[in-house]
Amino acid sequence: MRIRTITSAEDAFSAWYETYHSAHVADHPTGPRYSERELRVIFDPSEHVDAKLWLAEEDARPVGAAKLGLPLRDNTALGEPEIWVRPEARRRGVGTALLETLEGAARENQRTSLLTYLEGPADASQTSGTRFFEKHGFTRRITEIARVQRPPFDLDAIAKAEDEARPHAEGYQIVAWRDRVPDDLVDEYARLEGRLSTDAPLGELDYQPEVWDEARIRKIEERAQRMGRSAWSAVAVSGDGTMAGLTRITVHQDSDEVGFQDTTLVDPGHRGHRLGLLLKAANFRQVLRDRPGIQAIWTWNADSNQQMISINETLGYRVEGWAAGYQRDV
């Protein structure tokens, strides 16, 4: 077996992607997955994270793919490994050989901890991936539940929930937009994004606060455009101009197949006003206005985050899978 390094700019990345795709479909058939275009952009070098890629081949035939994410601005002791092996090539040592390669690269880059996220369907608590990483000493530190909102959407129920919530949110203004964060809001937006890495439930993960600023926000926006994704956002602004909460949904520009509810946060000092529900409902209506044919919106919450789970269920999200964070020292 040959294991070689590649980049997302090479022609060989197409073989890497096909390997990733075949493994993902085998382990989570109904789960969302990235397109080749999106992953090429995600793995581009940046000042925030370095993504190193490997392709495993037997007789010039791709059998395994791997990635090691190396955060560069925060969590710099962390390496983020991901491994995919084609179903027909499993249980032959491909995954183990790739993991050993990733471990060596992590040590070379002075990383002391490895953190990986794995996904699976609702009807299976384990996948080949979770069993593999547990065999190699990783422990599950957090479990998130994946929920999906699909048509027909119960807009009357959502409107009723909003009507019940509004009296609790007097003094707050909901501001919504598409794609670029307005210049007059970007500093506050970055402040709240930074809080997400400390305020969101982390289970037993060893994870440090992230550093967010306008430059990071603008870089993510630019990357989303290259990926072919649009983003809809809504924020709650208090009477003194402080941003109290935010939420965001992203959808591919060329497909209504799937969207991602990927960020929601209410500042701890502003909780208790039902801002989470009002933000998510307002933003969802914004998405439906522009993309009425959307077929699914996925979201993930820690299984301990009962407040956000309740909001999501009120909005019509239903359980369809899970994600689990596994961690181990190098």
Automatic annotation (TrEMBL):
MF terms in GO: acyltransferase activity, transferring groups other than amino-acyl groups
Record keywords: Acyltransferase, Transferase
The lineage's top-level taxon is Bacteria
Please indicate if the UniProt record lists Acyltransferase as a keyword. Answer: yes
Matching SUPFAM superfamilies: Acyl-CoA N-acyltransferases (Nat)
InterPro entries attached to this UniProt entry? Acyl_CoA_acyltransferase, Bact_Acetyltransf, GNAT_dom
Q: Which residues form the N-acetyltransferase domain?
A: 1-162
Do the record's keywords include Transferase? Answer: yes
- Name of the protein in its database record: GNAT family N-acetyltransferase
